[in-house]
Amino acid sequence: MELVENKELLESYEKRAKELIADMTLEEKVSQTVNHSAAVERLGIPAYDWWNEALHGVGRAGVATVFPQSIGLAATFDEDFIEEIADAISTEARAKYNEQQKYGDKDIYKGLTFWSPNVNIFRDPRWGRGQETFGEDPYLTSRLGVRFVKGLQGHNDKYMKVAACAKHFAVHSGPESVRHSFDAVASKQDMYETYLPAFKACVQEGHVEAVMGAYNRTNGEPCCGSKTLLQDILRKEWGFKGHVVSDCWAIKDFHEGHKVTDTPLESTVMAMNNGCDINCGSLFLYLKQAVEEGLVSEERLDEALLHLFTARMKLGVFDEKGENPYDKITFDVVDSKEMRALNLKASEKCMVLLKNADNILPLDKKKIKTIGIIGPNADSREALVGNYEGTASRYKTIVEGIQDYVGDDIRVLKSEGCHLFKDRISNLSEGNDRMSEVKAVCEYSDVVVVCLGLDADIEGEEGDVSNQYAGGDKVSLDFPGLQNEVLKAAVESGKPVILAILCGSAMGLNYADENVNAIIHCWYPGAQGGDAFARLIFGEANPEGKLPVTFYRTTEELPEFTDYSMKGRTYRYMKNDPLYPFGYGLSYTKYEYSDVRLSTSEIGEDGVDVEVTVSNVGDFDGVETVQVYVKVCKDNTPNAQLKGIKKVELKSGEKKTISVHLGREAFGLFDENGIFVIDEGKAVVYVGGQCPCTRSKELTGIDVSENEVNIK
């Protein structure tokens, strides 16, 4: 039995919480509704800060394992592995918490309520915070989000390991520069088809403890005070039992940015009355005045506190030390050998091989005397980690990873090439001041690795100190600064060029696709990204990552950034052929699909079981990602949508038969009123290792299996 199923225990937690609340004064109650909750010593309530981060490792609290950024983890398409990663994160979280408590440290980032995962939909490649998400697809985001939540919260029948939080509810994906005043207008169809499913899955399947509101408005209502989102959908429609937290200082945006209220008091009243339980910030201290003036009932305040204290009781923080098995997790698990091994595996699994002309990769060490490594991300720690990161005890950049891998066998030449986005490295230079070095490195190298991209200094969240380049968002899909010139110089040298991209989003790769020999998208690959990259390019590991986002040819084909209609966006709704499709990623080996069988051609209440045999007919061991898509054959419906995934590990020459179940709901769609409908008619089930689109076939030369079914 898991905690969520233990109704008797949950009722006892609520009973204890109610008894505690009944003994509190109004002022004491109010003190508990801000993220830095005060101690109430006479009742044995310790001070507690609710703000903590665990996006891809325990963040902002000292040394912890820094896993690949979330978008990179999404590229694994691996539900089981995502839960394993989240379980590792929560193990380190408990270990660090136990030590912090021992030494009386109750500061910010020192609690057990972690504001992760981010299950917003990465609908536009310009969004700087898209790196925090699991990509553009609601099905993939739902599956990975649920398993991440389960990994964080654990499977104990009495206690949560840590509390997870699904954010940012609900329609939130840029632009960053206007998020404090912006109204994201979305149709009911787009809401229910795209923006809400991952949150619903985290609530109903993952039993996520917390939900965080977004900064922006959605259809006119500020998300952290939205009756539609927080009451009608989250509580009533989905049956959410946990607590709702505001994004940080989002409630002051009600009057300062959105102008839907006039005063801090009015903003506080709107948020609390519409279902926000705790304020990241300090505005909820106005609740004392709000209750005294009858603007917020004390019953509603007590309801919020019930949610908050019940969460803390689920975590076991009010119980005697030792009752909770998680109290026994010791500090030596943090940054351990086992954690480092898991992190290296994650880095290898997340990288996506986009091009491999003439099978230039993997490289043969015996045939190379000198390798050149060029670019602003070649030796950059920042390009390993993304945002909301922890602190690694050791970082391995691309240069360092290759240097360590080849040892004295191969000479490694290095050049920074250019600044990440400025036109010079030395301020006193005339500009482009490393180009001669770039050309020299290319001349003396047998093969050149060019490391381009972004880092969290220019791709991330509005308000981050360094995000002055474009408010955290991308102004275009082009590599900024002089990076393209560096790449062209390498290509024009005539030497084989491998392009390594370190960033958290899709870039414009038209030139690279036409001119370089190989392309690997590394995302922000974590603290051991350099070791993983070296192992991949020399064949110690086989790429298995798949794109969780579409790589467009140009931003000109995209709708306006501020347009939240899904029309023309992502693989599900776009009309043009992408450069690299969602679900695409090459391997060093070759997989063949055969004997595709559907348990029925008539889709009834039980859905359908899809069976397929996958064979590794190449020379390398590998892991294939079986992808199942469904296209409902009606006018004005989305393109084929991902509805099933299965990872298959295969040695060279091995074959396995696997099964993927599609429930009846996989054949339904939402109408313009947001009503889920399964209409009678035809649908096509596609089975293969890629998205069923023309561009996928062009890139791989492989067709996917098409299987027509009738929906009854």
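Above is the first protein from milestone M3; the second protein from the same milestone is given next.
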Amino acid sequence: MIDVRDLHHYFFLGRPEEIHALRGVNLHIDQGEMVALLGHNGSGKSTLVRHLNGLLLPDSGHVLINGMDTRDLDKIWEIRRLVGMVFQNPESQLVGTLVEEEVAFGPENLGIPRNEIKQRIHESLAAVDMENMLKAVPQALSGGQKQRLAVASILAMRPRCIVLDEPTTMLDPVGRREVMDTVGRLNREDGITVICITHDMEEAALFDRVIVMSDGVVAMDGTVSEIFGRVEELEKLRLSAPAMSLLANRLEKRGIRLPSNPLTVEQAVDVIAGIMPPTGELPPPAEVSSPLSGDVVIETNDLEYTYLQGTPFQKKALFGINSKVTRGEILGICGSTGSGKTTLVQHFNALLKPTAGRVEVLGVSTTGKKADLKKIRSNVGLIFQFPENQLFEETVKEDIAFGPRNLGLLSDEIEGRVRSAMEMMGLSYDVFALRHPFSLSGGEMRWVAIAGVLAMQPRVLVMDEPLAGVDPEGRKRLREKMEEFRNSGITMVIVSHSMEQLAGMSDRIIVLKGGRIAADASPREVLAKDGKLREMGLEEPVFVRLAWGLREKGIPVRPDLMSLDEACENIAGLIKPGRIG
């Protein structure tokens, strides 16, 4: 169905900032394949898939869809009908005021007769299990529902291929399952080709074929088991493998060869249990150290917040929140979509003010008459969920300089802060300073957004989903940076729907459910009870799920394994030498 032949693409061709984004890509994808597209940030993944439906055109080479060249303008609408695109943020492609209008938009632009459009609306919504939501308002849907609606709007155009560019990055576990179940079913039942960009290796393990991009070329291409069995090669490409593959690789280095290479938790439980005899004793969780104690920098007392208060559309988002952020800690705030995470942290620098209760930042009430909001906001930096929303200048340098300039600093000090902030985020001044922010990859935009806040020299840094859309190497780098920030005296608040991400980096975690605090404790305490997080619409980290699966089979592992190192050490210590393969 898809043929890519010697594809080259440049950004800013002929200018000093020229980028050779694709460097002779050759690729063939058959009808009905299920393909995961991986690669480090800036590897060319998104540039490649935007060629598949003519959003970008080759500078040289060819892209053929069912034999039609994307540079043939007479064929472009048929190509875009055959290859539908679903982006990372569904809100960027939702235009209708009702669900049925959204799904009708594509067929209407194709000139499809009205009766057939009505039929397509019902069929497409049924395919994503949303047929009872015709009159719903898209903006009122959950993240997972919005993404499924985006898929339905593409299905209404009767595509033969759906391309998804990190469709689950901003979704909670429930929303992710909804989207992946939907595209998997469309592939199995309707034979629709699915191409999905993802940085989630557990998600990639659900596909049949994996293509790895690196620096504008195809670096690896094979079945999911073939690619994820080559752990060292993936690491050289700044990527990783699913956690269970990493565990098998680590155990093998210790002389323990598993009978097969597991990709999922379920496979790992079966494989490991097969070489370990059950016992009657199951150890309890490890002892929990007390959370950090220190000066309080942010405190909420009986905080409540209602959106659109006093109107027919008012909606209460927070209910009696009592919380503290102490100096020098890394606080994680976790919760499913709509739990109130972002609403809460927007009170931390007075972007929102309580409709009831009180918020104190650095000892000053955000609603008090003496509240210096400029001072609060310069001391509490906020990185939003979508970093591109806070980038607006012509160059990276000017974007980072915006905050310090508004503090009234002299040009030499501004320049020094810009260089220092870029250095802290690993952004070469010579390479990135004059680049346009929107020429960057998603991960690079996030580094620039963080640098722009660091240039303000805040005392508290709040990051809303900082690891979304970031490759494995970038996640590791950000975790290392967070320790550097802490050592430089910055207190951090990290917001995420992923307990996987928060458990390994937070001193303490607050879990929100329905606008209320459901848990406030150390990561090990929050993870101590099997099934508790799922009741909150969340999911345990992968090694915790492995531990509970093994314990159900009588294998005496700890129930609170939180990392690859812990899992490897615990499991290796239990396997008898005679069981080593």
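Note on the second protein: The first strand starts at residue 2 and ends at 11.
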